[in-house]
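User: I need a structural model of PGPS/D6 from Ectocarpus siliculosus for a docking pre-check later this week. Nothing fancy, just the predicted structure tokens so I can convert them on my end. Input:
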Amino acid sequence: MNIFRLAGDMSHTASILMLLLKLRASKSAAGISLKTQELFLVVFVTRYVDLFFRFISWYNSIMKVLYITLTSLIIYMIREHIPIKATYDKSQDSFLHWQFAVAPCAALGLLIHSWSWWTVSMPFSSLINFFWTFSEVLEPFAIVPQLMVLQRYREVENLTGHYVFLLGAYRSLYIVNWVYRAHYEAGYQHHVLVYIAGLVQTLLYADFFYYYAISKYYGGRMSLPA
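Assistant: Understood. Predicted structure tokens for PGPS/D6:
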């Protein structure tokens, strides 16, 4: 654990809590993508499947359970909680996430692990590795539906803007964490897939970061271009 990893985890946690605060305070899901939350839940469930058979630390286990639980709660609130449910606009959240995010990423995960996946015994470790690879490939694209919704609304509420900014900051801090570990941690194992996924995810936030910074600098409401 280093300061950049811890800051990344805290930023990630704060982003989720910020979204819960927005839903609870405004009683509205306007400008929020349910599909992004569903994609993040898929990412967490597949990446953290080792919760059932491997213990690393209490911090590690608590954070994993926290991400799964809070994301599930957000999905429940948007789908079922009244009056929030009535404010969710499906027509604006129209990205076909199962067809154009989950399915292609699953196919890519299978391709990467084809050397061990298509064996007669299909070892358990290969399945776990596939889930991890799939989650790494999928995570960068989980934010796409949310960015599309914000682009359609154009006007971004403060809490929603803070949520997306903190979520982007989490991945940016993780990139710094990887650089730090590679430089200072003896025997650190590089993983090209993780680096590529982290870079792609950060780049997807770049445009949002720019307009977020502009809005804070001038003290006005955040607005995205048409």
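Before docking, keep this in mind: The first strand starts at residue 155 and ends at 156.
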